[in-house]
Fold this sequence. Notes:
By secondary structure, the chain is α+β, with helices and mostly antiparallel strands. It has helices spanning 7-12, 49-61, 88-93, 97-112, 126-129, 131-140, 142-156, 206-209, 214-226, 230-251, 256-271, and strands at residues 16-17, 22-23, 29-34, 40-45, 69-73, 76-80, 124-125, 161-164, 173-175, 181-183, 189-192. The protein contains eleven helices and eleven strands. A hairpin with a 5-residue loop joins strand 2 (22-23) and strand 3 (29-34). The chain is globular. It starts with 6 loop residues before the first helix and ends with a helix.
Amino acid sequence: MTVDPIQPWLTRWRLTPDGAAFSTRFGSRLAPVRAADGEAAMLKLAGHPEEVGGGLLMAWWAGDGAARVLEHEGDAILLERLDGSRSLAAMALGGQDDEATRVLCAVAAKLHAPRPAPHPPSLVPLEVWFKSLFETAARDGGVFTRAEPIARTLLADQREPVVLHGDLHHDNVLDGGPRGWLAIDPKGLIGERGFEYANLFRNPTAELALTPGRMRRQAEIVAREAELEPRRLLQWIFVYAALGAAWSAQSGHDPKPGRAIAEMAEGALASGPR
């Protein structure tokens, strides 16, 4: 009989199951639990080195802009459970897209704030992430080739480097009730601050991302809220959308939505920010 790897941690941290355990596509194992004092929590066993690094970053944030870490050891992490009723994805899809974007910008600002402790050594430089774009450009050409020189220029002259969540979007910022909106599931990168916001323009769905006029409107909001140079923000949106399409192509998924978002950003760049 196979023993669920969650079980030893329930005993070690005196946790009580509070729902069914489940696995993620990255091989991580999660279980809703109650801590010894009754607090609702989520136990996670990371199934990938990237998620182990994400746990280290969550601990470093110490609950400022992110879910609080209650316990952390090796691949295991116990997080406060964020079960508020609000959803940024539902807001964006339900007519409150602008407000959802402002929330994401506010959370990013908290995550980017300086901390007294040294950042985790597990952080990945942006240059490493963009290798997939360069490989795909050499093989497939098209929008990937057009994005490559812009990406190389941005990476060679990074401004305001900070610790980055790396996957900030509507489903990775949850309603923490009285504690407000809080981030989960970081990738753990380090690089230019403006990069963080590019992922917002691919989310919460490709359909919404490709709505005529949406990209420009949200770019104006992000540039204003995050105090970013509009054209440089559009460049990051362009190259990150191309990178996302490259990841899709390499993993056997459909790269067309990512390419379409990249081409929309490329068109916005060509016509210039308003």
